[in-house]
Specification:
heterotrimer; A alpha/beta; B alpha+beta; C alpha+beta; B: alpha+beta; 5-stranded mixed β-sheet; 18 helices; 38% helix; globular; C: alpha+beta; 16 helices; 19 strands; 37% helix
Chain lengths: 294, 394, 545
């Protein structure tokens, strides 16, 4: 078992509890021992990075410091935005000794351990798309997806900026497809899979955001997808919870189920509804569950 | 050395509206760029192909176009790997701008947005001493160093997801250019500029897709420039926009409960009245448990540390864009990889390295020469004997 | 742009005509810096700057022009800084100045290694601030002469199509050089000498046409420029044996000798078999990664992208390439040509500031200082005269010519002639020149002109963005400018500055050739005469570095 520090982020703690529940149940099946970090805060998303960038740096340094204190090499995330924020803060600290010294001094003075041992921040997606994690995945996905057509939606921040994320080619990513196939599903290809769901401006500029949001849903629908899978709970929130607003704006009712990555793999690995918590989704996942039951 | 390159080019005639995907197969030298290949097509296959070009050294910004749907500078794009793999790329005009012909877009909307941010210095009242230069430290100028690299090529604009959804969005290029002046110490109109940039189609319409950062061929990172504008706006108390309120609530959440106070996010961002209008929508979400009750608050462990951190860093002078600029040096290292970690001896000793340079009859000093121009005169003639040019010229 | 800004500020109604969007012009590709005797890095004076320039010109520069230039340069730099130009700074916050070729004191003001880019941005910003009209992507084709005055320009509207004539009381040419005459050049595709050709065809005198500067460090094989600033920061030039060969040619100045000297030294090394692939190496490894990344990031990126080499780890293959044309349209110290109403400034002009060889960093400064002077002079003349008259026949004639060009159905494509032009010019009129080769080139150019006159096939017959057409017109311009260059080159039986004839006339001959070559177009061919060099206080001396 690979011991990793687990930072679940805000949504998995609150409105997207199903993500945390599925992840925690799935982890041991793919060889991950999660050590949940508790003395942490929101990573700040793009918002604190923009509003108070120095505070953003410190909040993320604190998360990294507590992860490092668990004596692990990897800090595991389950959200695109958390991944980018933590990795960016990490590179700032790793690449500038003076900056790291100053931040550490501040951390220590409020009672946080200094960030000394380096950790690497990795999304669960990366852990199970290749190497050991992938082998474990294949072994675990015994129930399979019975050829279900799944449209992978990467969203933005797991791929870009690629000089910070760097796991795969930002224009030709393959990780979700590989996982879908390993789970026995059929991956659907469509252009908007790497475009923005619009979540960051879904409140401040709703119309613009909906103009973005409709693209992946419509394209996946027209390609015959049974469901969309995404590694980001923020994308999940807009794709799932805001679908009703799309219906209101365009008159089109796609009824497209949206799955978290952990849920998709979880289904293939035989997790129960109590762990998957599909009932928490706004757009019903019943059609998918039906197809798999048969 | 030659290679075979296949290209599929989208031809377009704006007057007739005709579109056609044409395929070309050409012979090109191994070092050829996409631009070189287009030249070969235009010279030897189809003289009607239209595209812009000039410097061919990635500084003029003329040759922006899409290769396989992603904007690039044609002169920067080497074709060797693509050709070797057998892949035939699709070349098309940049996005988000009307197409004039083939790969030529109408740049007028681009320049209009550029002009809308008053892209020139608006000096303050301090005159520099003796009519000479303003005295500015290099680090202070470096605040806008990345934004000053912009060559107005349009690659960022081409891929902007927000602009695709709303063509009126000011866009990454204009906003990056706006920061170039907001951050310039000689500019005296920072507040007025920021007020304007906080408007309906300004910084808060950016969807943070990071396509601009990804596509920019010069490393400008427009998204970061937009973040710097946001940071500076908030620092100056310009925060009436919903986007600003949304951002502020994240800060409040972090230092009070640690985790984001999601439920209150809507009224805090959009105001109570607007929140009430969303009741139906909110109810749908609430029924699924997606609206966590604000009471009791979901508080993270040891959140007092976060609270104290906030007060501590607030007074350390890195607020506003300074907080983002402070990380740029370290992040720039990412692009350079591990360059610069070796000693000079190690560099000369690498396998296959070219010999250490020498000066006939002299040791080369250990450090680098300053290379000052000569103050004295000495002999120069082009060789003692007339030179024989080898066959074939240089 | 500098001329336009000045003319606007002087109260004139200004229109800028450009075949490219203004920020695409090739001045933006300049890298190393811009010279002015500010005295920030070390003691300096306009007199020292003037002496260096005069000597650098191999004493062919007009000294009154040079004195004006060096005296006014500092003020122009401060003006640019006040407008917001992003220059690199010293520790004390003053403008930084780096050493450059043949400079007695480090006076090259710079912005990392993207000085041209920074300048073109600040000028365009000032243009936008004043809302100056730009006729963008208008290809300037013919100057309008009427009643003994230049009164406008006939253009082909590249974007929308059609002939458009822009009338003006005065016209300032700021159209740059014609490096594209050579196959290996630092110049952009756009540098085809259109402005010089337009003036030439009107019978206006072109001066010192034989002097083409070959920049010592152009990347192999593309010809892309690597700035002299690399050498200014301490880079070495080495041959295939790793030797810093400049010791044998310019033992004091070494890599920072005058450009013509360095190019000749490199060419000699290459010719004598100590080159690699027809190039030598620019070695920056000893500068260290930090200095390279901080001061020369653009150069590093160019080397990596276009030569596949990271200068931190490996030396970069470079060779001489056609870079800057010292010659051009003859003007007085205010940019006025001999045709009333026609002015010129920058590379297209020949005042002459640079004589037989230009110092690095002086060209950018010239565009600013003389751009300003020409703009003001043109504006003042225009404001004190009232009429513009463009005869209808001018556009009608152009229309006919256009139709004939587009009507050619069978013949060569322009690229074939362009390729032969570029290759032959490089071989027969390059860094080293021989009498017989030049004579041969005269004939080759006659042949090329004949081939061109037989009619080249322009495949695009359309109106919208017909760059096939404009490229064909550019080719004609280049052939005729080359003919002027060759005629002057053959006749100059000496070696001076960039005109090097080591086999037949290796020495400078002040007695017979201390004079400017003048080319005028007569009956479809160039005619050569000579003009005096203007002296003030610098006596011609032997030129050594």
């Amino acid at each position: 078992m690979k011991k990793v520090a687990y930072y679940k982020g805000c949504l998995a703690s609150l409105s997207a509890k199903e993500l945390d529940s599925a992840t925690q149940a799935l982890a041991p099946k793919v060889g991950l021992k999660l050590v949940e970090l508790e003395s942490v805060t929101c990573c700040g998303a793009g918002d604190i990075h923009e509003a108070e960038p120095d505070y953003y740096l410190h909040l993320n340094a604190r998360i990294l410091a507590y992860a490092a204190a668990e004596n692990v090499d990897t800090l595991l995330t389950v959200c695109n935005v958390c991944t980018l924020n933590l990795r960016q803060a990490n590179f700032m600290l790793l690449g500038d000794a003076d900056l790291r010294a100053r931040v550490n001094e501040n951390l220590v003075s409020v009672g946080v351990p200094a960030y000394e041992r380096d950790v690497d921040v990795r999304h669960l997606l990366w852990e199970i798309a290749e190497g050991d994690g992938y082998e474990q995945l294949k072994a675990a996905a015994h129930r399979g997806l019975k050829g279900l057509k799944i449209a992978p939606f990467y969203g933005c921040q797991i791929l870009r900026p690629s000089k910070i994320q760097g796991f795969e080619d930002p224009d030709r990513p393959w990780s979700l497809e590989r996982i879908i196939e390993a789970c026995g599903g059929e991956a659907i290809d469509y252009p908007a899979k790497i475009k923005c769901c619009g979540f960051p401006i879904i409140q401040a500029r709703e119309e613009t955001a909906l103009g973005e949001l409709i693209q992946p849903i419509e394209q996946a629908y027209e390609a015959g997808a049974d469901a969309i899978v995404t590694p980001c709970p923020l994308c999940h929130l807009s794709l799932d919870a805001w679908q009703s607003k799309l219906k209101k704006a365009t008159g089109r009712d796609f009824k497209m189920p949206i799955l978290h990555l952990s849920q998709l793999v979880g289904v293939a690995a035989g997790l129960e509804e109590a762990e998957l918590k599909f009932k928490r989704h706004v757009v019903s996942v019943e059609p998918v569950v039906e197809k798999l039951r048969v | 050395m030659a290679m075979q390159v296949g290209l599929k080019v989208w031809r377009f005639n704006a007057r007739t509206g005709e579109r056609e995907l044409q395929e070309f197969e050409i012979d090109a030298p191994e070092e050829a760029t996409l631009l070189d290949c287009l030249d070969i097509v235009k010279d030897r296959h189809d003289g009607t192909l239209a595209y812009r070009k000039s410097c061919r050294m990635m500084i003029c910004g003329s040759c922006g176009m899409r290769m396989d749907g992603a904007a690039v500078l044609a002169c920067k794009t080497r074709m060797y790997d693509v050709a070797q793999s057998g892949h035939v790329p699709v070349i098309s005009a940049m996005g988000n701008l009307p197409i004039v012909k083939d790969l030529v877009v109408d740049m007028e909307p681009f320049w209009d947005k550029f002009k809308s941010v008053d892209p020139y210095l608006r000096p303050g009242y301090d005159e520099p001493p003796e009519g000479k230069e303003h005295l500015i430290r290099q680090e202070r100028m470096n605040v806008v160093h990345k934004e000053a690299l912009c060559i107005n090529c349009g690659c960022c604009v081409s891929e902007c997801n927000a602009m695709e959804s709303d063509p009126l969005f000011t866009g990454p290029q204009a906003l990056a250019k706006a920061f170039r002046f907001v951050g310039d110490p000689r500019d005296g109109h920072k507040i007025a500029r920021l007020e304007k940039l906080n408007g309906e189609h300004g910084i808060w319409e950016c969807t943070r897709c990071y396509f601009c950062n990804e596509r920019c061929p010069k490393g400008v990172d427009p998204r970061d420039a937009i973040a710097k504008l946001g940071a500076e706006s908030m620092k100056e108390g310009i925060d009436r926009d919903m986007g600003a309120k949304h951002a502020k609530w994240f800060v409040v959440s972090a230092k009070t409960t640690g985790w984001l106070r999601e439920t209150e996010l809507v009224p805090k961002t959009q105001g109570v009245v607007s929140a009430i209008k969303q009741t139906r929508f909110a109810l749908d979400l609430a029924l699924k448990g997606k609206v966590p009750p604000p009471f009791p608050p979901h508080v993270a462990k040891d959140v007092r540390e976060a609270r104290r951190l906030h007060d501590l860093v607030r007074d350390q002078g890195r607020s506003g864009y300074a907080g983002i600029v402070q990380g740029e040096r370290a992040l720039a290292r990412l692009a350079h990889g591990h360059a610069g970690e070796e000693t000079l001896d190690e560099i000369y000793a690498r396998p296959g390295a070219f010999h250490r340079p020498y000066l006939a009859g002299e040791e080369i000093p250990a450090g680098a020469d300053e290379g000052m121009g000569s103050r004295t005169q000495a002999d120069v003639t082009p060789g003692e004997q007339p030179t024989q040019k080898p066959e074939g010229g240089a | 742009m500098r001329a336009a800004i000045e003319a606007y500020d002087a109260g004139a109604n200004v229109g800028v005509i450009s075949k490219l969007h203004p920020t695409r012009s090739h001045s933006g590709a300049a890298e190393g810096g811009i010279n002015a005797a500010l005295g920030n890095a070390a003691e300096d004076s306009p007199e020292t700057h003037a002496f260096d320039t005069v000597k650098g010109s191999d004493y062919l520069g007009d000294q009154d022009a040079i004195e004006i230039f060096t005296r006014e340069a500092p003020g122009d730099i401060y003006q640019l800084e006040h407008w917001g130009a992003f220059f690199s700074r010293r520790e004390d916050g003053r403008l930084a100045q780096r050493p450059f070729g043949a400079a007695g004191s480090p006076r090259t003001v710079y912005a990392a290694d993207i000085t041209g880019h920074v300048l073109i941005q600040v000028l365009y910003e000032q243009l936008v601030k004043r809302d100056i009209t730009v006729y963008e992507e208008y290809f300037a084709w013919k100057l309008v002469e009427n009643d003994g005055r230049c009164q406008g320009v006939v253009c082909w509207d590249l974007l929308d199509g059609g002939l458009k004539t822009v009338g003006g009381k005065t016209v300032v040419l700021a159209t740059g050089g014609q490096g594209r005459i050579y196959r290996t050049t630092t110049n952009a595709y756009a540098c085809t000498g259109d402005g010089a050709a337009m003036a030439l065809y009107l019978g206006v005198a072109l001066k010192d046409m034989e002097f083409m500067q070959f920049h010592p460090t152009t990347l192999y094989p593309s010809g892309i420029l690597l700035t002299e600033g690399c050498r200014g920061e301490g880079a070495y030039l080495i041959n295939s044996e790793g030797e810093r060969f400049m010791k044998r040619y310019a033992p004091n100045a070494m890599e920072l000798a005058s450009r013509d000297v360095v190019s000749r030294s490199e060419q000699t090394e290459i010719d004598q078999g100590r080159g690699i692939n027809g190039s030598i190496y620019l070695d920056m490894r000893h500068l260290g990664a930090e200095k390279i990344i901080e001061r020369l990031p653009g150069s590093r990126e160019l080397a990596m992208t276009f030569a596949g080499v990271d200068p931190i780890y490996d030396p970069v293959p470079v060779r001489p390439g056609a870079h800057y044309h010292m010659g051009g349209v003859q003007t007085d110290n205010d940019g006025a040509t001999e045709l009333t109403g026609l002015y010129a400034a920058g590379e297209v002009a020949c005042v002459s500031v640079h004589g037989a060889n230009r110092l690095g960093g002086n060209s950018l400064m010239e565009t600013i200082t003389f751009g300003r002077r020409a703009g003001r002079a043109a504006a003042e003349w225009a404001l004190s005269h009232t009429t513009i008259e463009v005869p209808e026949s001018v556009e009608a004639d152009a229309e006919r010519e256009l139709k004939a060009m587009l009507g050619v159905e069978r013949g060569e494509r322009p690229w074939q002639i362009r390729q032969d032009l570029g290759t032959s010019m490089l071989e027969n009129f390059g860094v080293f020149r021989r009498g017989e080769q030049m004579e041969k080139q005269v004939e080759i150019l006659e042949e090329l002109r004949e081939r061109y006159d037989r009619g080249v096939v322009i495949e695009d017959k359309g109106e919208v963005f017909n760059s096939d057409l404009t490229q064909a017109i550019e080719l004609g311009n280049m052939i005729d400018l080359a003919r002027c260059m060759l005629q002057a080159g053959v006749a100059r039986r000496e070696s001076r500055g960039a005109h090097a004839r080591p086999y037949d006339f290796p020495d400078r001959d002040d007695e017979h050739f201390m004079k400017h070559s003048i080319s005028r177009w007569t009956d479809g061919r160039p005619e050569l005469s000579y003009d005096e060099v203007r002296f003030t206080k610098y006596e011609p001396m032997e030129r050594k570095y």
